[in-house]
Amino acid sequence: MKSVWKWIKKHKKLCIFLVIVIVLGVLIGGCVRSVQEAAEAMMTMLTRQETAAIERRSLVESVSATGSVTSAGSKSVTAEVTGVKALSVPVQVGDMVAEGDLLCLLDTADLEESLANSELSLSVAQRRTQLDLDAAQRNLTEAGISVQVDMSRMEEQVESALKTYEEARESMNKAGSSYGNANHNSTEIRKALEESQAQLAGIHEQLAGMSGAEASVSGGDASDRTALEAEARRLEQLIAEYQMKYATAQETERGLKSVYDQAVTAVNNAYDAYNRQLQNQEDTIRNGSSTLQSRQDSVTSSRLNASTTGMSDQQQIDRCQEQIAACTVTAPLSGVVTAVNLETGDNYNGGAIVTIEDVSSYEVTVEIDEYDISRIKEGQKVVIKTNGTGDLELEGEVLSVAPRATGGASVTYTVKISIDTPCEDLRMDMTAKLSIIISSRENVLTVPYAAVQTAEDGSFYVEVVEENGETAEGSLPTRRIPVTKGIESDYYVEISGEGIEEGLEVIVPADNSLDNLNELMFQMGPMGGF
User: Fold this and answer.
1) pTM of the model
2) How does 216-226 read in b/e, with b if 16+ C-beta sit within 10 Å?
3) What pLDDT does 523 receive?
């Protein structure tokens, strides 16, 4: 009997429908009383207080949705070239292609001619700039040699001027020494001359004194006079010799002084010449450096010109090569061809040539309303069923959640879900029924969702059936136990609270639809004279 009650409890709506069918059958068929009795018996069965046991089970909270199967990857294939003719389009809608397979071959004749012209123009420009660079390098080399020669010549001239200056100083020193010796000799002779002249003047004074006293000259005085006269003559002869020597010495001194003066002038001239050569050397170095820098700048400029010359030609070559390569259009991924928009002989002016859908993996795109979207997160597991695969449950995962709502009358958000279970029966555009797993609990105490009732203060409770049977009115004696609701599934809810134990029977209040049916039966009356 208990199994019958469980069946009625789980198929309540079906039972209500059967009652309505019976009532209608009575109205149509005329078997009023017997059917009414059967209906009343059914109503009595349905309106009795239902109970359910608190049981442990695993619960899954999910959000249900319906979407369509799409490919995981779709590519509209285009070509990076326009205004060319299609030589071949070897695929048709429905063809399976592998990555790299030829989809379209476009005409490259005009592009190849443009490429050849650009390559020729680049070759001429590069040859011209190379000649300029070679000339600049040659001028630099020649300038370096010329500067080196000038530097060597100037170094020799500076060394020669320095040597001349040093030789002039040596000659000046020698002339100065000779002039000094002559001056010293002349001075000594002059001193000896002046001494001799002074001695002679003294003798003359003595002799003059003797001449005034001749009367009293004795024999001894006569001899003194004679001696003085003899000394005077000797001094006169010596003075004459000194005068001749002094004249000769002065002449020699003057000659040597002239030589010394000439030597000083030669030294000054040699020093000036040496300084001029040093200045010339500095000028040569500066001019040579300037020349070399100018030639080096010319080389650098030529190199820069060589690096940039033909740039536009090279860009044109690269563009032509890219466009020629783009004329061979291949599949960027493996899949099925779902659209072909170009035929052999047509001019391609842009747009998708072929559309390819990747059928190696699928996705489901669904719209979730604003009431549930906050519960949907990337990475959540999904159970998927399709009409084409029957009761087979496919595994999936939430890939993305749109940040903004989809435009439309209702507020919904697009969610993409992968299909991770391989299945050969899947096809694009199949209807997919989804259960997005929000949370799950294992081995928790549960009751039917309708068994949890709401008190006046908004708290939750369940009515637990007492073990002492029915009351006089036929109802079951119960007591309230406050509970806290946990995870919810479509039919069951997790409960917890003090006194909640596995196996306790709780009241499941009757559905409002049963009350409505009971009222309908009452209004119909005994139906005896229908």
Assistant:
1) 0.45
2) eeeeeeeeebe
3) 45
